[in-house]
């Protein structure tokens, strides 16, 4: 056996990851259920490094040095289980099975447990950066045992993106920690994209700019605090003209946003953990709403008039307000995502270091952004941070942007342009900083109709009022 690592599942992500590994001087065994994909890889890219191709799973496993490290790059869910089931009987104690797909972290928990009982390591590995990242340097979030990382870490760190000489790859924690963090990464990706989409909508529908002009605005924004892959990519997409119609490309794409599940899982898990990830939730629901085409058509028929917004008296000022609102909302979305990572880590005892996550998200991944450096610094200054929002840099950004944020949300409401992510992020900010929340009334109502009890501001203990009787209060 001469390969130091193996990879099965040679669709575009798997193929690019395999090429990346080979290009970094590691001998890699490759396999695909349909052999043609494996031979095509060797034919086209075989000279990029040392590949060992096998047609059968048995030969593939036999071509890898022990303890073996085998990366699975197939669709999440059932297909992943099928490959694991086929592989396991061929493996020896101490071998490492790596799932590089977007698995649900509870599947990873289950698989890790099952393989551990067989003396095997199971590593749930989050890989971000799309096709391009897989080939030229992704951000890699690795779960699993220390022993497994000891063997895999050097290979993965060599193929990951790098920022300031630091690889964008880390051992996040045991079992499902890596896939959990990747899930939240994707949730933040949803929020980021929704905020960008709302900004575009406002610049077009309220400020009256054309897509190419908006592309220019995004290019300018990309020179400041907002500098990020998604802002840069938005400019590229908005500049693109459809070859068939000559129209802006964004006008020929159907306005129905799809999703494969990671954003939804983030929200489902946040509900279980009780973490208000309002930006991510609104972003996910906005995608759902876009998909309800029948309801949308029915609503357009009945409510056919667009509300008349007040005309803008200063377009440049509005554009700058949108930039500030976008930044403040983005800070909220990331703060919420990091809260969820902390809560998930506590729940499962993973010991995730949030600063390390900010560090490995600075390059390679879809949400890579200049301001992750600020998040990294915030955690370096204060590892047990209560919320990112109150750290000096972000508190300042949100405070400075607050007036613009309110003006943008108010203008959007007036113009009938939906901005669920902007609005909910602002509501979250206002909710957090409010001296008194109307939650007091909710507690009183709960006690009234269900004797659910309440706490008092002036005394310790749990109380109930005899609402149906003499209105006396009893301590319970
Ligand atoms: C990444 C991306 C990648 C993909 C997601 C989102 O980090 O490289 O997040 O994993 O874009 O699967 O997909 P959906 O938008 O289809 O849910």
UniProtKB/TrEMBL annotation:
InterPro entries the UniProt entry points to: 6-PGluconate_DH-like_C_sf, 6PGD_dom2, 6PGDH_C, 6PGDH_Gnd/GntZ, 6PGDH_NADP-bd, 6PGdom_BS, NAD(P)-bd_dom_sf, Pgluconate_DH
Pfam families: 6PGD, NAD_binding_2
Catalytic activity: 6-phospho-D-gluconate + NADP(+) = D-ribulose 5-phosphate + CO2 + NADPH
Entry's EC annotation: 1.1.1.44
Oxidoreductase found in the keyword field: yes
Thylakoid keyword on record: no
Catalytic EC class: oxidoreductase
Domain 6-phosphogluconate dehydrogenase C-terminal: 178-468
Keywords: Gluconate utilization, NADP, Oxidoreductase, Pentose shunt
Pathway assigned to this chain's UniProt record: Carbohydrate degradation; pentose phosphate pathway; D-ribulose 5-phosphate from D-glucose 6-phosphate (oxidative stage): step 3/3
PROSITE patterns from the UniProt entry: 6PGD
Protein family per UniProt: Belongs to the 6-phosphogluconate dehydrogenase family.
Oligomer status and interactors: Homodimer.
Cited function: Catalyzes the oxidative decarboxylation of 6-phosphogluconate to ribulose 5-phosphate and CO(2), with concomitant reduction of NADP to NADPH.
Designated name of the protein: 6-phosphogluconate dehydrogenase, decarboxylating
